[in-house]
Amino acid sequence: MTDAIRKIRDLLDELEVGNPGQAESFRESFQLFELPELVGDIVDYLQPALLPYEAAIYWHLFRHSIIATGDVFARVSVRGLARRVVTSLRSAQTSALSYSAVQDALQGLQSKGAISLAGDTNREGTLYRVHLPEEIALCRDAMSKAQEQQLPKTDPKRELDFYNIKENRLKIFERDKYICQYPGCGKQLTRFSATLDHLTPVSKGGDNSYENLVTACLQHNSQRGAQTLMDFLTRKGSIKLNAPAEKS
Length: 248
Ligand SMILES: [Zn+2]
Description:
Distance between the termini: 15 Å
Strand content: 5-15%
CATH topology of the largest domain: Arc Repressor Mutant, subunit A
Number of helices: 10
Largest sheet: 3 strands, antiparallel
Order of helices and strands: HHHHEHHEEHHEEHH
Number of strands: 5
Number of domains: 2
CATH superfamily of the largest domain: Winged helix-like DNA-binding domain superfamily/Winged helix DNA-binding domain
Low-confidence stretches: 16-23, 237-248
Helix content: 40-55%
Bound molecules: zinc ion
Radius of gyration: 21 Å
């Protein structure tokens, strides 16, 4: 099961690398001012799931991708990582990590979905794609769990504005695991590409409450315009209204 998912993810990543438009879109949607929040999420949700050398190498890749270029790709070699990231705890003679420690950490990061192979290996090393917390399944689970716990039970979600207040917007994204909620879409988004959509449009009396907002990709958000979600879906014929709820 996990293997199959990993294979699919690798294929998707290959597609993404093969398609410059996609790679371009991360750079275009990347917002520098989101960086503190992104770093906070990595510390809170990803790092606890990593081993020490994995964490050190993830940060190194992060620094040489998103921080260096505003994009998600970094090319690194095992040799370079062994020398430049951290000092080995085990070898008293040299301060470098062993190659096998580096390889284990890279393997661990890949199996946790924190990075993925993004292309060829050449003399400068191997190209990796660095994943953001919202793209990593184990982080999404932790975020959405934390989200459920954070929402005060006595505080009626209805009274808060989840559209205009930025930290509230993120709560909707986290609840929805940064996935477009339109039936049949399921596109994995990031904090840079996700948009909020009203189930009942404001023009039809919809509010900015927790229940009336969903995560949507830009394409689906703009497609629907001022139709209610129900109108949109029935017109498209993409759902059967009487279909029984699926159990997973
Ligand atoms: Zn969508």
